[in-house]
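Researcher: Please generate the 3D structure of the following complex. Treat every line as part of one assembly.
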Amino acid sequence: MDESDDSKPLSGHPNRKVRVIAGREIYFDKEDFLKKAEDWTEEVAGILAAESGLEEINETQWRIIHFLRKFYFHYGRAPMNREIKAEVGLSFMELEALFPSGIRRGARRLAGLPNPKTCSG
Amino acid sequence: MKKIKLKINGRTKQFVVGPDRVLLDLLRDDLHLTGAKQSCDRKGQCGACTVIVNNKATRSCLTKVADLEGAEVITVEGLGTPDNPHLIQEAYVLSGAVQCGYCTPGMIMATKALLDQNPDPDTEEIKKALARNLCRCTGYKKIIDAVKLAGRFLRGETSPDQIRPDPAKGVMHVSLPRPSAMIKACGTAEFAADIKIQGALEIAVVRSTEHHANIKSIDTSEAEKIPGVIGTMTAKDIKGTNRLKFIFNDQPLLCDTKVRCLGDPIAIVVAETLEQAKAGAAAVKVDYEPLPVMMTPAEAMADGAVRVHDEFPNLCYQQPQVNGDAKKAFAESAALVEAEFSTQLNHQAPLEPEACVAYLEGEGEDAVLVVIGRSIMIHTHMATLQEALGWENMRYEEPFSGGQFGIKAAITSEGIAGAAALHFKRPVRYIPSIHESMLLTSKRHPFTMKVKLGADKDGKLTAYGNDFIVENGAYMILGIVVILRALEMHSGPYYIPSIDSLARLVYTNNAAGGAARGAGPPQVTFALESAVDMLADKLGIDPLEFRLKNSLMPGQSVSTGAVIEQWPFPEICELIRPHYERAKKEAAAFKDGPIKRGVGIAAHSFGIAEPGDKAQVAVELDLDDGVTVYAAAADPGEGNDSMLTQITAHLLDLPVEKVRLVTRNTDQTTETGPAAGSRITYMVGGALQNALEQMKAAMKEAGDSTYEGMKKAGKPTRYMGTKNVPEGGLDPKTGQGPTFDSQVHNIQMAEVEVNTETGEVRVIKMTTAVDPGPVIHPQNLEGQLEGGMDQGVGYALREEYIHGKTKDWVTFKFPTMKTAFDIEVLTPRETPRARGTLGGTGIGEMTMVSTAPAVINAIKNACGARIFNLPATPEKVLAALAAGK
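Model: Done. Output below.
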């Protein structure tokens, strides 16, 4: 859905984009989160990181990304900040500073954790 | 003040009360007997507060305590407990008469009063005795069944043990008592307003008195001087985005610069008591600069109309659907019908007001904001609230919920309560009245539809066009989704080679539309199924034959162009055929005189699981070898607890007592999507099946199904199951693309009587044939169908929500025992679906989709009057009769 022209009515699906990344079609929502965590690979993470200005994912960042994914596949939800802090031993401010756009819009997005499913798909 | 002594549940108590204290408040507030519920703003309209006073069923909301000296009061808590229930409570549970459970305590007390006086009442006597007790879920049929069963129990003709399903028959296709039914029947299930929180403050909200205006100023100074008022807050006090984001980010939690709709929230007042909070809200002064008001799409689309939202044009969305050459097909058709239809703005009408409580757990920056509300997607709503409030550390909990029917796809009171708890750092309760609940909730969208339908000389459909405009109201919420769902299902059960349709969505200053049972298909199906009958009539073909002749067949496509693999629709046409023939014969005898009888049918094939749908469920083996299911699968009354429990017990061969469900809080559950779109059995049940199959495979490898055995074998005790539907969407230019992963099919028949002198329509009976795939719990299936058809008849004949004017259950014209009708659910066909959960689908919404057109077609069959605009009020029927003469 193209929202760039605010003089015309929109068309199409409101919460679905498809992109070709690393040779595969991958679906994203309107906030650029993966629709399905299973579509994620480290290569996808690297490409999304580069797009957000992070040239290279460092060891600490990988540790957080892998923790996020492990937590998600065990509990079926993204961890709260308090749960990330308890795992990685960093303060909230340190965590926020580690990723462009912080934990939720940065780390969670790079880790391929989807937004909770809504009625809009 | 007056000292009163009365006996409550066998114990004598004294109270000193003022002249206005009513029994309901005494029971709930002073004695914490919260089985009696409040729905109708203490107007005596709903019966949810019914208790027995001196052997008579009494509406406790109207009963002054000062008048009760020496009285004997029995509440539902005095009747029985979950461990030792009364036979009436057993009868309600075993009859499937308990869905959301909000009306149940009142119903049970009215039943006791009746059976104490009349141990063997007939249907009419039951209807009369329970006429003042409302239910939105059941269609009243199973409640009447429960009263009769209770009578048999009390007369000693049978016993609960004789009625209870035989454990030897397994757990599939068996109507085991719902896990939550008995605590609802005993009044111990806690709904939001029943939760006791020490020191909780009460909330009142200042709401817009204008339909459309700029806010020039908000003065709260006088409110803050009122005794008991703790404080006020406005948009500037909210630290987050202050936006309730759904599809668009267009709805403020508290309006800052502008109001777009009557009732928009502007300020919050918290106080020690509700009366003080209301007095505070009344003292807040809002200075408005009125803007032009647009209450219809035509006004909003007119040249020069001001925008409701600066960021979007009023015509904010449009989606064509084009398949084949419809223009040519129409030109070559042997018969055509063209007509314009409309449906009304409507309220989903759950009985429970939009109650919510919130508090902080812990202190400082580490405090957890706990919101307890009626959401059907607690993880999504928590994420929305985190951003809106600017507070990440949250937990959302779902209490028992008094029905929702789509209304809780949107956030309503939870943003207000959460904001107040954070701002004042005190626990709060926001228990709006039913009138305020109507103002603050989204509604069923009104549609206007220009329809064209063609067929060839053999009666085969050739082309269809539906140019429809959907009034979005003031906020987007789910408007686009409703349009897409309508388009994806708008060719119904039929194969129509050519399609040329256009959907448009328009902002106005009316109440915002949102999810409502069916959400799109009920509106477009009313138009299509009316047009199908008109075309059958034009061609001289019987309506059932015409539908059967045009059924889509496997290998053909729906209107999106998606090719379908399974379509067991013709079989349900055959299933209903003998009943249809019987009804036509019976109706033929009522053609003389002013009362005419008619028969109408309508059908629908309802999509289950949209492209890209996904669900995940965790299961964990417990120390006692039982299993706990973790999933945020909301259950506001449908019976999802039965489904999850019985699938688990079946696949692991466990007794149901060893299956535990954790579904109601965001800390412990998987995020598994909304309890909407009839997707829970198909998607969440499917993910559960997947998880259990993984656990079973591990048990097989371990050679042991016990917790200890699995541990010794080095096997995990927790498994995550998933179900995914392939991604895809409709093409923005053609509306072509994939469709739902499966469908549930139904056909309904209405038998009605029309009084041609008054225009009044009475539904005598609804009959339905369905194919949902293999049935897990027959009673829950019937309960959904019966309740859905009751809602559908209300939609067809009476219900219409007028924002600001519809204020209670009387002005809404809520269905009652008096309007209840005979219902027959034919034994379903159970075609296993290729990817269904144990072959099954879901049925919650399709139950009402066909009802309104079946009723409208029956009216036409009875008296020749066709209704094009819902609801079919007596005035419209008389006008149509006059126009036809």
